[in-house]
Amino acid sequence: MTGLALLGLIMLLVMIGAIFIGFPISFTLLFLAFTFGYFGLGEATVFSLAYFQTIGMMKEELLAAVPLFIFMGFITEQAGLMERLFRAFRDLLAPIRGSLFAVVILTATVFAMATGIVGAAVTVLGIMASPIMIKTGYDGRLAAGAITAGGTLGILIPPSVMLIVMGPVLGVSVSELYASAFGPGFLLASLYLVYLLGRAFFNPSLGPPVPKEERVHGIAVILKEVVYGVVPLLGLIAATLGSILAGLATPTEASGIGALGAMILALSYGKLTYAGVRQAVLSTTATSSMVLLLAVTSNVFGAVFARMGTANWITETMLALPLPPIAMLLVVIVLIFLLGWPFEWPAIILVFLPIFYPVMEALKPALGQSLGIPTDMVMVWFGALVAVTLQTAFLSPPVAMSAYYLRQVVKEWSLATIYKGMLEFMILQCIAIALIVIFPAIATKFPEQLREESAAVKTEEVDDSMNLLEKDPSQQMEEATESDKEEGGGDSLEKDDMSAKPKK
Questions:
Q1: Which of 47, 154, 319, 499 fits 112 for a cystine, CB–CB 3.0-4.6 Å?
Q2: 265 and 236 in contact (C-beta within 8 Å)?
Q3: Domain range holding 443?
Q4: How many domains are contained in the chain?
Q5: How far apart are CA 103 and CA 197, in angstroms?
Q6: Section 27-34 average pLDDT
Q7: What is the C-alpha to C-alpha distance for residues 220 and 134, in angstroms, rounded to an integer?
């Protein structure tokens, strides 16, 4: 290890220690990058790196989707669409055992596809579901686990803001990353449903049906509630995610469509008020500023870190370990999971993931061969795996933010009860991670299909003039002559006029 690489390693360790103590992440990264970069690289180099990295990040059009998707989520929440969705599923599933468990997971899954945010989903689900769950006699641990696990699906299922930020870091298309996240997201939702309904079926006291006096009677009333509660959100989802996956719009363009669509829905429900929009704008500004400032400062930190040679040293050291590619992958996943305890996802994606990126890039051919997937699809698959891992970390005590979101709105459940419920779902998360590793098609099948369809469309749109050489030469000459006649019509008239003039 060179002295410069050692200096970079010290910078990394100081950064981790400072963040553990409680220093603001963005300013810590910037301060350390300038300080260590000044002594290690020189004043001119470090300031040039900071300038070009900042300008490059400001030119990244994709990041404009971050505030727009966040704004869409806040407006959707204020419009009361989640409450209507919850009521629709509750009325529809009321007679079955564990119905409220299923209602929570289905509501969280659909709402995740319409918002892509976590804190609001856990909070709103806690406010809506916990009173009737407590009143009906649902098990507190399972109920808390269902709300926190379902609420965190927003970090994984598109239009997840985390995936937008992750795309440029891994050098993959956000559209393909979105497509790869659907399989794992629906897999997790299915595991939650099977587990919860199975527990309620074999032990009805854990999740009894909704009492008859609480049910809505009349199929027409139920269907009306389902239509009003589900169809508007499905339309919003189709307009945003559908346009991205169909190739009709970029994520940035789709985020603008989604933000406008959310405001139209809020207006149609009579919930679009000045105070609500103002609060949504302020919340969006606060959240987006945190993410985008961290994106800039982490880019500067990463550039200094890489220029010092520490990133190459870490890559070479990890690759020198006598481990097969799958074992090395598991080491990276475990490290990301452990980092998820003290750090929020923006820090992990923007600061630590670039450190692991060269390792995964070097392992791409071997992993592709081991997993049986195309080499250029390995990073897309890895991105989906990282997203599931970070969602698992979001549920991991003692720094599980979902637990604190839920505890703030449900005083009847202690943190111990919430933690115990979350641990059960962490086991399901680990099962999902194992399934994605064993069966990578869960994450790669959909993006591969989209890639094939996109290639087919491009093939159909190829100009037929490329095939002229395959035609008969005489036919080509005839077509060329006819074309010249059509284009030269104006010129022939002009020539006739000129010939009519007397010569001098």
A1: 154
A2: yes
A3: 60-272+309-464
A4: 1
A5: 11
A6: 90
A7: 28
